Amino acid sequence: MLGKLKWGIHPETHKTPTEEKTIESNALPLKVILPVSQHIGTPSRPIIKKGDVVKKGQLIAEGSGPVSSNIHATLSGKVAEVSERPHPIMGTCLAITIENDGLDEWAEDVLTERDWQNLDNAEIIQIIKDAGIVGMGGATFPSNVKLSPPKDNKIDTLIINGAECEPFLTADHRMMLEHSERIAVGILILKKVLGLENVILGIEDNKTNAIKVMDKALAGTNVKVMAIPTRYPHGAEKILIRTILNREVPSGKLPMSIGVVVQNVATAVAVCDAVRNGIPLVERIVTVSGSAIAEPKNLKLRIGTSFAHAVEQCGGFKVTPEKIIMGGPFMGVTQYTTDVPIIKGTNGILAFTKEEIQCGPQSPCIRCGQCLKACPMGLNPSMLSILGERSFAEEALNEYHLLDCMECGCCAYVCPAKRRIVHYIRYSKKLSAQKGGQ
Amino acid sequence: MVIVIAIIGVMALVGLFFGLVLAFANKKLAVEMNPLIHVVEDVLPKGQCGACGYAGCQAYAEAVVLDKDVSPSLCIPGKKAVSEQVAKLTGKAAAEIEPQYAFIKCCQPAVGNNKYDYSGINDCLAATLCQGGPKECKYGCIGLGTCVKQCVFDALQINENGLPEVDEEKCTGCGKCATACPKKVIAMIPAGSHVSVHCNSLDTGAVVRKICKVGCIGCGVCVKQCPYSAIIMKDNLAVIDSSICMDKCDNSVCLEKCPSKVIRTYKISLPEIKNAV
Q1: Minimal Cα distance from B131: which residue of A?
Q2: For the domain A18-110+280-354, what is the CATH code?
Q3: Which residues 343-362 of A have a C-beta within 8 angstroms of B?
Q4: Chain B residues contacting A, CB < 8 Å?
Q5: Which of B119, B123, B138 sits opposite A427 (nearest CB)?
Q6: Are A172 and A211 within 8 A, CB to CB?
């Protein structure tokens, strides 16, 4: 099953600065900024106004439309503003700013202990939906949508993603070591909702301690813990499914179409908290690392905390960083300010010095084929980048399967000409969407 | 000698055979084409700009000749002259074409007003993928020249401020640049407009003040001052109805009253344009 892997890359993991460090939760920020768009799908609709007093866990923006998600206050205090604020992915976005009153009080209707084994599935899905849980691995797809597949898709396998293949990030790794019990409960809840027997937790084999801990936590259940080879991008769901089940997700389809649902370990924790303890999604684990950070750490932070506050918790910047990234170095998004808040999908904040960043001028493609070997989706990144350079989006779309690219960045990593292949591909995608929309 | 004659004979027969086949095919498989299409196509300016809504000049020629509902006045670059000629050839009535020009609704220099250094692909659309583009103002011109690349008439150029500049003599008003601009900074305005708002920002005045010295702050002074009610405020941005302006106004008070001087005269004056057309 785990044959020799011919795709992907094996970059230096850079996980040592934080993988031994326990998750810390320090001083609360003075304010949190909660963008209404923290997930894939329609933005949420704010239901509070400026001046309102809110408590931790109170619903402040509700999902609108079938693919959307609720947002809760992550601090108790006063709503200072509902305005356009910097957003880590979209540039700017409507956001609710809450000033901390220092009390950190929970809202009354949350924190209800439930016996999840006696709840029926529709109830559990409703709880997950109300708690605003989205895919915590970074893609932020609303979890309740994944858990209610259309009737004609028979789901037979649940894969829990503990691969964490991006360099530097150790948030999921620490989560597995320190909160294995919550993960185990979360997995069992997800398993019950989907009503299936076959559950596999995939963990990359460079995290042997996590594999052991999870094995122990899941003893007595029929959840299998599987060590998968360390290879980037193993955390991408389509790749994980291929490695574990040897099934291929058809082009343009979701894993649901081949009977698989993939959930991240951090999502399992959020599900456990929401269903068992009634806690909505208000905080998450973030790895703060990179050569410009004085003391890299894994932090438990309230959603909406600014990057500046998170970096402060880690002793600030050693030197002025050249580049700050939200997420991993491959698929993360570069930031232009530390005023941006942590959103539901922020698994890391990385700050790099100039020496660490490879940013030379690009040269023409020499068609060496390195990127073809590296591409986990079996695409032709070389040709896609050349078509992008010439704005031939239609050809890229129809003949080179443009939309199958998940922008993992393996091609740009191996490219000896330092071509911005992923940028070209994203440009082509945007261009073809624009043309299609006209 | 006999061999030579035989070869010539055989070749002649083969030639005759294929000639007959071709003659037959020419008659039998001929594609009926209205000769008028070629005549109309010759009249069109051949910029292949697509402003008419068809794939190119030939496609439009075909449509206008064969379909009686297609207007003969769709060719914007061709202006009145082409419209009249096409109308005459196809026996339709020419509609009035308002000559229009591309106009860049931003005058904040593209250099020195950025929130980060952009080093990616040299294209505005590609730049907008990175946090909406490097420019501090999210409505402003990024200045990487996507419009310049689109212009088939060579009417756009990036000036020393890093902003595109329209050469009104070359601009045919096809609107290709306006479609390509990811920030929708380019508007098509009727030739002869006295004044226009050189700003595209829908931000509130306070935000604009912070990031731009030459942005519309939405104060509404121009709306109050205009004696002909040609200016309205829409989403914090002054919008001028050029037709009222052109018809009635000969003393543009809005120009002096605008506190941030975003309402400016348009470069080419009315008589010059009339002569050009």
Answers
A1: A91
A2: 3.10.20.600
A3: 359
A4: 115-116, 119-121, 123, 125-126, 128-133, 138, 179, 182, 207
A5: B123
A6: no
B72 with B129, same domain?
Answer: no
pLDDT band at A271; cut points 50, 70, 90 = very high
CATH of the domain at B65: 1.10.15.40
Q: Could you tell me if residue B219 is inside a domain? A: yes
Distance from CA of B78 to the nearest CA of A (A): 24
Structural domain including B107 reads 100-276
- Specify whether B40 is located in the same domain as B145: no
State pTM to two decimals: 0.86
Average pLDDT of span B156-183: 88
pLDDT at B273: 40
- Residue A165 to residue A170: CA distance in whole angstroms: 9
Please state the separation of Cα A83 from the chain's center in Å: 25
**Where do the domains of chain A lie?**
18-110+280-354, 111-277, 370-436
B138 vs A438: CB contact, 8 Å cut-off? no
Q: Are residues B244 and B165 in the same domain?
A: yes
The CA radius of gyration of chain B, in Å to the nearest whole number, is: 27
Structure confidence at residue A5 as a pLDDT band (50, 70, 90): low
Judge whether residue A184 has pLDDT over 50. Answer: yes
ipTM of this complex: 0.86
Q: CB–CB of B179 and A388 under 8 A? A: no
Q: How far is CA A329 from the centre of its chain?
A: 13
The mean per-residue pLDDT over the stretch B83-88 comes to 88
Which residues in A lie closer than 8 A to residue B130 (C-beta atoms)? 334
Task: Please name the residues in contact with A34: beta carbons below 8 A apart, sequence gap of 6 or more.
Answer: A60, A61, A71, A73, A74, A95, A96, A97, A98, A303, A304, A341
How far apart are alpha carbons A139 and B142 in whole angstroms? 29
Residues A427, B116: C-beta atoms closer than 8 Å: no
- For tokens 């957003």, the residue is A87
Average pLDDT, chain B: 86
Yes or no: say if B181 and B159 are a contact pair by the CB < 8 Å rule. no
For position A2, what pLDDT does the model report?
A: 47
Residues of chain B above pLDDT 90, percent: 22
Answer yes or no: do B125 and B250 share one domain: yes
- Judged by CB atoms closer than 8 Å, whether chains meet at A388 and B121 is answered as yes
Q: What is the CATH number of the domain that holds B247?
A: 3.30.70.20
Which band of pLDDT confidence, cut at 50, 70 and 90, is reported for residue A360?
confident
Residues B142, B65, single domain; the answer is: no
Task: Report how many domains make up chain B.
Answer: 2
Is the confidence at residue A1, as pLDDT, over 70?
A: no
Determine, for residues B132 and A91 on separate chains, whether the beta-carbon distance falls below 8 Å.
yes
**pLDDT surpasses 90 at B189:** no
How many pairs of residues across A and B have Cβ atoms under 8 Å apart?
A: 46
Average pLDDT, chain A: 91
Fold of A111-277: Rossmann fold (3.40.50)
Q: Are A91 and B179 a contacting pair at CB < 8 A?
A: no
What digits encode the pLDDT tens for the residues A210-255?
Answer: 999 999 999 988 899 999 999 999 989 999 999 999 999 999 888 9
Question: What's the rounded Cα separation, in Å, for the pair B69 and A207?
Answer: 70
Three-class SS state of A61: strand
Nearest to A359 among B116, B119, B132 (CB): B119
